[in-house]
Amino acid sequence: MTESDLHLDVDLDAELDPEDLVDGPPVADVGEPVLVVDDLHIVYRVFGGKAKQVAAAGNENVREAKAPKRSFVKRLLSSTSQHVGAVSEVHAVRGVSFVAHHGESIGIVGINGSGKSTLLRAITGLIPPHQGAVYAAGEPALLGVNAALMPQLTGERNIWIGGLALGLTPKQVEERFDDVVDFADIGDFVYMPMKTYSSGMGARLRFAISSAATPDILMIDEALATGDAAFKARSKARIDEVRKDAGTIFLVSHSISTIDAMCTRVLWLHQGQLVMDGPTDEVLAQYKKFVRAHREAQTSGRAGGVAPRARQKPSRTGR
Ligand SMILES: Nc1ncnc2c1ncn2[C@@H]1O[C@H](COP(=O)(O)OP(=O)(O)OP(=O)(O)O)[C@@H](O)[C@H]1O
User: Where is the ABC transporter domain (predicted)?
Assistant: First the structure.
């Protein structure tokens, strides 16, 4: 797969939502550093048949991993004696460094597969770093439908576990319980095991739980806002509400106008590397050029637009 074959899901011309414009363009009132990402590398390991597919795709971030060496006797005695197939490594985030401050709204852009969601998940601690580190003041929380809930437990138990995991006190969970159930619109199903829920009900409850707290560092992956149009509208309103109270926000979105309306600073990832970090208008201007060139190249069958080279020494502040 060449770069020009990459799927391009970027929404250059989306309409701005009216509520994004109410407060005018975002203004940074920047304070203390709250998050340091230092030379972060994230590597996924893909095993078996799937690894062959991934390797066959020829993505630059993917390489075949060396299979662990096992002696002949060990292989002979092993109960899993069948060949496990290839192991591939996907180097999804490659040497990303930046510092985020209190009061910043930071957009993360990049074409499909550039590592945006992986970076967010790594910052919230859902994926361990392969190399490098993430230092956070406070508990970064990912707003979306990815909360790790337990399907065998009732919605009620999951609201308690999820709420406490988000740092709410038992009193706060109790106070917000009815709100979460109403928002998720699951009625008496809240007393049933989550494995009996439809996928929509599960996604709504996950979103409702994750938005019950107001974290210091809020990560929003728009791809995680699922559901029908009415729920999407309610999620958007809830995101805006939580956003107003959070200290620092990260937003992944394919809509350039949403990033433009909400963010004071933008990080541009390409093939897992941070290629630009700066004020929203500067980064978006370059990124739009790249996306247009890429899109034209895709329609004409030529090689794609050229992204800037990854910065050799990313600035620690991005400002
Ligand atoms: N669980 C996983 N196992 C293996 N590889 C993965 C996994 N999740 C993501 N990847 C790979 O890591 C790379 C970065 O993916 P990621 O989802 O972070 O990119 P993205 O920029 O968020 O993409 P999109 O805009 O399409 O959501 C891609 O090559 C992807 O195929």
Answer: 74-296
